[in-house]
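User: tokens in, sequence out, please.
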């Protein structure tokens, strides 16, 4: 549009100049008309340009994009980034000296160290020339060197910069399948595995496959990880909420899921799938096996695809709970390919925390061959996931074993991280429960606490006056006073009339006491300011 307008203006200006030239040729004694014509043409061009709308406006973009929201990196985080810039340019200008990002599960950004064995293998795969040097054997463990050779032999051209098969490198998928089989006690097939750039693209891929229109619905837990509401919105579907029971430790109750399913169907919505996040995000609960059996039976009976988000499977902090995959539970119940199940895993969570490496996979079972061809086609559009992420996914599911040189150091690093996370979770849980008007369920797993805020009416009224949700109002005030970044519970959805915030347990252990101290001082002042 802008190009055509410019062309019209050019022709207009050219015509005006030709006219003025003809006039000046016959009346050379008076140059003013020519100058006036040129000025008029320039003015017309400027006026025309000022009235042309930009080719893309907020009103003209895809409405599905506008509907999509992702609170984990929303307004509070944007404000935190501005404050961080202010601290860098004007140290001492704020009542704190650093921003503590407790809003997102990004462990290494908060000081967690990567697993040595994983990084050694990655380094050797990325720079294979090191394998031919004598000093490499003094710098790297023998099993890391051996694993790097094994992996390089699987990669076309032994180059991590090369494209791979669209599902991922076959040998790496074999290793992941072996890891799944060892975890569950049931066989896994490499052909069922699609390696992706983290779990998020896999979720998008399944939403793209399942959602045909706004009449297609996806059952999601509330509170939910915003990836699900965002991806459903982007692909034009309808989120069908089912509420977790905070009073029972964020329990998933089948009668609630069934009620929401029936309500959606009564409104003409075809519910395609049930999302279950285990361990929970943002709620931190770990499902009991009996509950998982109910969920599997429900999906089988109702003809729903079970989308199992299992990216926190290594993050279990209580002795009376353990992680069981839905693949394992369904096989124990005697179900095989007759249950449509998609299981998601990521290298970003667990004890590894390799968020920036963007590695993950989905295991797809219970789909007909023609549907699987369509899933592969969608994967092929993106060519392949990054090779470093693929390698990491294979290492996560096939780490050092007893007898390997790195086994003891690997185990010490792994257990050290998980035990520290458990202590941090307990310390923050206790701190929240000691605050006036705050209640917090135990973080049985994952990386978060989701305390409930029982706010005074004056605070709720002040939030309304500021055109903010009460928990967003609280989170903004907390950030401005302490530098602590949390996510308002309203960004995850919640039972109407309740207010929460999500806080990670990821700041390093030596910083937890200072965080608790800052939080306590702020909360006491906040409650006093708005006391009814």
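Assistant: Sequence out:
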């Amino acid at each position: 549009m802008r190009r055509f307008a410019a062309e019209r203006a050019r022709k207009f200006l050219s015509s005006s100049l030709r006219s003025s030239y003809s006039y000046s040729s016959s009346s050379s004694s008076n140059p003013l008309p020519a100058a006036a014509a040129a000025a008029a043409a320039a003015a017309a061009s400027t006026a025309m340009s000022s009235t042309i709308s930009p080719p893309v406006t907020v009103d003209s973009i895809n409405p599905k994009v506008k509907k999509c929201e992702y609170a984990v990196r929303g307004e509070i985080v944007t404000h935190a980034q501005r404050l961080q810039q202010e601290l860098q340019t004007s140290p001492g200008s704020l009542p704190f000296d650093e921003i503590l990002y407790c809003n997102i599960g990004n462990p290494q950004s908060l000081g967690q160290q990567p697993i040595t064995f994983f990084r050694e293998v990655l380094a050797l795969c990325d720079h294979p020339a090191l394998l031919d040097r004598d000093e490499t054997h003094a710098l790297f463990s023998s099993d890391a060197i051996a694993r790097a050779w094994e992996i390089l032999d699987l990669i076309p051209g032994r180059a991590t910069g090369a494209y791979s098969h669209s599902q991922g490198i076959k040998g790496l998928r074999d290793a992941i399948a072996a890891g799944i089989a060892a975890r569950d006690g049931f066989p896994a097939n490499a052909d069922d595995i699609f390696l992706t750039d983290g779990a998020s693209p896999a979720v998008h891929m399944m939403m793209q496959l399942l959602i045909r229109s706004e009449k297609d619905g996806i059952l999601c837990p509330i509170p939910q990880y915003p990836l699900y509401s965002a991806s459903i919105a982007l692909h034009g579907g309808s989120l069908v909420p089912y509420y977790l029971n905070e009073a029972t430790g964020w329990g998933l109750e089948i009668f609630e899921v069934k009620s929401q399913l029936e309500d959606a169907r009564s409104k003409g919505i075809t519910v395609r799938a049930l999302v279950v996040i285990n361990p929970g995000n943002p709620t931190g609960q770990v499902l009991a096996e009996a509950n998982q059996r109910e969920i599997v039976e429900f999906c089988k009976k109702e003809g729903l695809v079970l989308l199992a988000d299992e990216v926190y499977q290594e993050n279990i902090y209580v002795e009376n709970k353990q992680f069981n995959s839905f693949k394992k539970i369904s096989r124990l119940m005697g179900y095989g390919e007759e249950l449509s199940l998609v299981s998601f895993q990521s290298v970003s969570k667990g004890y590894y925390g390799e968020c920036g490496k963007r590695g993950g996979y989905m295991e797809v079972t219970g789909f007909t061959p023609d549907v699987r061809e369509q899933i592969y086609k969608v994967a092929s559009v993106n060519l392949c996931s990054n090779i470093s992420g693929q390698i990491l996914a294979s290492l996560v599911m096939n780490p050092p074993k007893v007898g390997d040189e790195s086994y003891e150091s690997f185990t010490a690093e792994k257990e050290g991280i998980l035990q520290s996370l458990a202590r941090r979770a307990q310390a923050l849980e206790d701190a929240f429960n000691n605050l006036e008007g705050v209640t917090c369920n135990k973080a049985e797993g994952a990386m978060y606490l989701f305390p409930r805020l029982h706010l005074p009416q004056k605070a709720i009224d002040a939030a309304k006056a500021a055109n903010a949700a009460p928990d967003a109002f609280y989170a903004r005030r907390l950030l401005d006073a302490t530098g602590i970044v949390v996510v308002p519970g309203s960004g995850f959805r919640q039972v109407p009339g309740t207010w929460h915030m999500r806080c990670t347990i990821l700041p390093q252990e030596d910083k937890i006491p200072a965080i608790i101290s800052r939080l306590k001082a702020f909360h006491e002042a906040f409650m006093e300011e708005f006391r009814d």
